[in-house]
Amino acid sequence: SFEDHITEPRAAHLETMQMFKAAIHKDDLAFIIYQDNYLTYYSHKQILDQVQDLFNHLSPKRNQKALSILPPGYLLELLLLHVYLATGLSIYFSNKSLYSALMEVKPEFLGLKPLQVEDLRAYFYAHSTRATRISRKRTIWSIKIGEAYSEEAMTQFKYRLQFQLADWWRFRKWRRLLGGYLRSIIVDKSIKESTDQLFKAAF
After folding, report:
1. β-strand 109-112 against 90-93: which pairing, if any?
2. Which residues fall within 8 angstroms of residue 27, CB to CB, at 6 or more apart?
3. CA atoms of 141 and 145, how far apart (whole Å)
4. How far is residue 113's CA from residue 92's CA, in Å, rounded to a whole number?
5. How far is 93 from 97, CA to CA, in rounded Å?
6. What is the Rg, in whole angstroms, of the alpha carbon atoms belonging to the chain?
7. Which whole-number Å values give the CA distances from 151 to 40, 197, 203, in the listed order?
8. What is the distance between the alpha carbons of residues 71 and 81, in angstroms, rounded to a whole number?
9. Beta-ladder partners of 38
10. What is the pLDDT of residues 162-200, one digit of tens each?
11. Inter-residue contact 98 to 69 (CB < 8 Å)
């Protein structure tokens, strides 16, 4: 476990660390990332600021798990790995299909590209509509309720009842399809607003 590898640093280690820290400036170049046909340069401060923002948003805990399926050189995954390592939570890497890995690992955190999120939505729809006509109608209705999700909507009694029914009919089943524990799907670019609201409702 992570705790097995924790040791108290010796004086020599601390001295070496201070020497390295003194030689590094916050505006020094930390990474050069080639992504989407562009070269982007990041300083230590830029990376750490984004890592801190992610850390504050996700509030990860040491006893939680993360599934890493994006390339480590992909900026979002690079930032998430920093968050995971700083927290000490368990990171799982897998070469299996996304759905097989999710069922095996049962993570709380997962980073995806926007297209992968849309693929997940299509997977949920296909899985939920292959049974009966009633099942298809329930799925379409639940998606409509999920797309209307917002904090303001949840203050309305009628919508809360509709949301609870949609959660019972579909959302809880979708969560089980992804391992049952997933609480955050992190995406680095904008996705369709309807898809964004649907996933906020379901997870």
Report:
1. unpaired
2. 43, 44, 45
3. 6
4. 18
5. 11
6. 21
7. 36, 10, 14
8. 11
9. 35
10. 999 999 999 999 999 899 999 999 998 888 899 999 999
11. yes
